[in-house]
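Try it yourself: sequence plus zinc ion, in.
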Amino acid sequence: MDQKNFSASIALRNVQVTDTFWKKELELVRKEVIPYQWDALNDRIEGAEKSYCMRNFKLAGEVNRKRRALGTSYQEVTYPTNQWVTFPDPEKELEERFYGWYFQDSDFAKWIEAVAYSLTQYPDKALEELADSAIDQVVEAQLENGYLNTHYGINDPKNAFTNLRDAHELYCFGHLVEGALAYYEATGKTKLLNAVERYADYIGTVFGLEEDKKKGYPGHEIVEMALCKLYEVTKKQQYLDLATFFVEERGKRPYYFDLEHPEEKPAKEGELKFFYNQAHAPVREQKDATGHAVRAVYLYSGMADLARLTQDESLFAACETLWNDITQKKMYLTGGIGSTHLGEAFTFPFDLPNDTAYAETCASIGLVFFARRMLEMNPDSKYADVMELALYNGILSGMAQDGKSFFYVNPLEVDVEACKKDERKHHVKHQRQKWFGCACCPPNIARMISSVAAYAFTENATTLWFHLYMGANLTKVVKTQDKTTSLHIQVESQFPWSGEVLIKVRPEEPVEATMAFRIPAWCKHFPIPEELKAIATIQKGYLYLTKVWEKEEEIKLDFPMETQYLRAHTGVKEDLGRLAIKRGPVVYCAEEIDNSTDLKAYFINPKKEIIRKTVNLQGEELVMLEVACKKMKADEQQEALYQEVTGTSFDELMEEATLKLVPYYFWGNRGEGNMTVWLGMR
Ligand SMILES: [Zn+2]
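Structure, out:
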């Protein structure tokens, strides 16, 4: 680890995204997703399973007011706290108990985080007032001791932190911390931040190495990275210590979740239940990415934060091993991770089925979290390549073009009939869904997209790294030994359709600083501009320019974007004999609507030239691809199920055809139909 290469993401208030491609997505989040999400949190969406999220906060506040008013004479009314989900009896009036899924508080936290990021790009007084009033309601739910979770807060506070494995209290807390920090950074307001600090301080009295404290850790990670962020903003050592505690406890024996659940049979070593929560071994001994994919990458992100903040080489090495395991053996071409819906989990190396994939949107988002944290320690383009891949493909596919419906699962092959009639594929939806009762992905996409600039640029005192290319205006504050000044930077880019990037730099006063530009892995021949050759160096996939920036100047970079045929490692049995097509960062797929139902009948030849066409599909400008290919002649219904082919040439079975492809992220926006990324090769 070389500390001089450490960096942090640029503050969103110092960047304005002007990019054609991303601005459209940011606008969707602002105009569609955030208001829709608010309606969902308030149970105002017709036909969707009710969330009860804000209703729970309001009720918790009311219960608290009664507790305060009556003091010791208040009689607690308790309800069970061991139910994953509680819905009211439709025949009866609502009771004064928690309703919904037990992690429902996190929906508010993700909403406020997306709101905060959006406010940095689009100041909006009405939205900020709404957010302030929501925060007032949330803070009212906080108990005197600082505890803030409506599930236990309403139903039975005595049971708090008795089921870390399943009840997601620390998960909700982690999200609340992230939301509070984002809102503080966007608005300077501290009400929610103060509340989460009080909650964090309370958690510090419950968990720790001291004898009278619990030695637990959460079943669903996120608290690790949230506490690291809380430490970085507040500089309070106790939050870093608590993050360290949660990371270091995981995987120890005796197994905490056995101690917590004496009513169940203890787990045996090697059993899957250890792997599901990444608790099979202490974190430094974990060599394979295992278990629930979202939880795994959230943990690894927290480990990476901690490795950087404590300069822990062994923890960094563990992160690197896990990163390589995922990206070299367990990641779909689209940046999706998690091959099975059973446990929403990783399976084993090279097991990447296309039609039963899980590839949850949240897992790809978590992979992007992990990637940026690795970049913050080690600026190596391999992390940013994956970040870019996941963003333009497996994450964006999670949201419809109109921002109103969402995929939870992102398969690489869909047969509509199979999704409807084959139970093994029931988790795969062929059309995006309105909202989910267990709504993790939509609000996660909202917070990811609205903060996308924080993944594009990271900085330290004198260096600015360009990891992703997007149009933006940003201010880089340069701090040298003798001065602090600013570089005003304007980026113009047509990514992901063209690899040309123009960067205009205007220094407030002459200052020495470094700009580092990622050379994408898909760009095979990057020409270093003639005028930069004298000062340019290349390290780990970045072009570094160090110089005194004296006057306004322009840097023109061109990353030629060729269309590429790709094959998978032969270990991926599902993709043997198949090809996929990618252009720049964008993976392509074939859809029924542009071709025909039988997409598996198309065979492509990697020698064929691919034709590019800029089209407007439903108001969106994008690049479509077209390639001449062979298509297996279809049998009539009445023909025999099996037929002899002795002496028959391959070509006799085929006819000439043309295959049309659209960006993978765009699939499923034009009605119901089959889709595939991988195509037969001949
Ligand atoms: Zn999700």
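One thing you can check immediately is this: The first helix runs from residue 20 to 41.
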